[in-house]
Amino acid sequence: MKKNSKRFNELLKKIDTSKRYLLDEAVDVIKTLPSAKFDETIEIALKLNVDPRHADQMVRGSVILPAGTGKTVRVAVIAKDAKADEAKAAGADMVGDDDLIDNIQKGNIDFDVLIATPNLMGLVGKVGRILGPKGLMPNPKTGTVTMNVKEAIENAKGGQVNFRVDKQGNIHAGLGKVSFTKEQIMDNVTTFIKAINKHKPAAAKGRYIKNGALSLTMSPAVALDTQELIDLK
Question: Which CDD domains match (predicted)?
């Protein structure tokens, strides 16, 4: 069993591990935990009471964080003609069709989000096996398969976070940076949890959110009061 580092153990002393914190308290604690030389990401982990093996219990979508993610997001767009021009004007970092697909096939993935117009999804399908495992496959549910490429680019660069439950019923996401103000962090976290609650499948029974925690990139986790999370609508 791997031992915790001295730094990690010092951070643990700041957390009551027997307690489930209200969000307001949890953010106060999180703000005391930075220990890295970079601006650490605030991460949320939720365990949902769903079985994603059943299509009617899949939880997937996107949400725009009011304070943004604190990251510079590189956006690529698969589009042609007028839509390609629209993408370039909207600030896409790279725009193309066959040439962009060729680059992806060669392993050149220099983007964080891929947007595609519906008419070119057949083309994107050629690299689905490359994009899928990286979570980069465009999908209508996350707004990345659309004719409104301008809005999709603005959303991606303006703080959109995509989420998808894994096989064990977990959802993880980065919700900003520890340098954000407490109010910005609270806004981002509550907005994200409300989005998760709105995506509760009708087939999900019992307590939808089983547990949750906040942490930083390099910190221990702060357990959250589950009832407060469930009540956020």
Answer: Ribosomal_L1
